[in-house]
């Protein structure tokens, strides 16, 4: 049994919508071993309506709330095991995490909760939940997985780590996705030994974004944020062949990102 060598991650902002915009042609052209999807917005009662010819092994984790959040993993290779969620009830009703085990590593897809818009106190509404509960528990989850074998986790982490990771850092200091608290929690991932693969290979690359607002023609002007990541255990560093951003792939407000292993 082999482990995947080419992986794509994509927040599709609605699977049905992106299928109408050429998703299957994208899959055929790119042909990764595995594609991890976030924000599929698919509920359990709808999953049987989807099939992907080259990807016989499809894992779904659907939110209890219809049309919300949810993740999926499409694979050409059968996983050894699959875990849905992180084993903590207060987090697991939104369908945000799937783990697929392969011989050489665990592959985790994650759709991190958005801290959301400001409330009456001037703070993002879900900032405390996001940074004091979710981020801490998710990091503990992947660190515990790592005790068994290396980990690759990918997805929309809903944070731009450094000023280089978004077009307008100065005007976004207190906005969701670039608060001090969220950036600190991403730094905790790196401090725990995980590698931000794109920044590892492109330490000074600017104007490299994965999400753009639908407003103000932001994508055409490249006024974006890099909030989608592939992070790997340090033990996999030498196996990283490439980590790229597929800017030209349309269909969502995010674009896909790729990881290829040697």
| H and E string | EHHEEEEEEHEHEHEHEEEE
- CATH top level assignment: Alpha Beta
Low-confidence stretches: none
CATH topology: Deoxyribonuclease I, Chain A
Mean pLDDT level: 96
Terminus-to-terminus distance: 16 Å
Overall structural class, as computed from helix and strand content, comes to: alpha+beta
Number of helices: 6
Shape: globular
Q: What's the CATH architecture?
A: 4-Layer Sandwich
Q: Largest sheet, if any?
A: 6 strands, mixed
Give the structure's gist in a few sentences.
The chain has 262 residues and is α+β, with helices and mostly antiparallel strands.
Keywords, separated by commas or semicolons:
single chain; 262 residues; alpha+beta; Deoxyribonuclease I, Chain A; six-stranded mixed sheet; 6 helices; globular
Structure description:
There is one protein chain. The protein is α+β, with helices and mostly antiparallel strands. The protein has one domain: Deoxyribonuclease I, Chain A (4-Layer Sandwich), CATH 3.60.10.10. It is 21% helix and 25% strand. The chain has helices at residues 15-19, 23-30, 127-146, 180-191, 197-201, 218-221, and strands at 6-11, 34-38, 57-61, 71-75, 81-84, 97-101, 106-111, 151-156, 194-196, 211-212, 224-225, 228-233, 240-245, 257-261. The strands form three sheets. A six-stranded mixed beta sheet has the order 3-4-2-1-14-13. A six-stranded mixed beta sheet has the order 5-6-7-8-12-9. Strands 10-11 form a two-stranded antiparallel sheet. β7, α3 and β8 (151-156) form a beta-alpha-beta unit. α3 packs parallel to α4. The longest helix has 20 residues, at 127-146. It is globular and about 50 Å long.
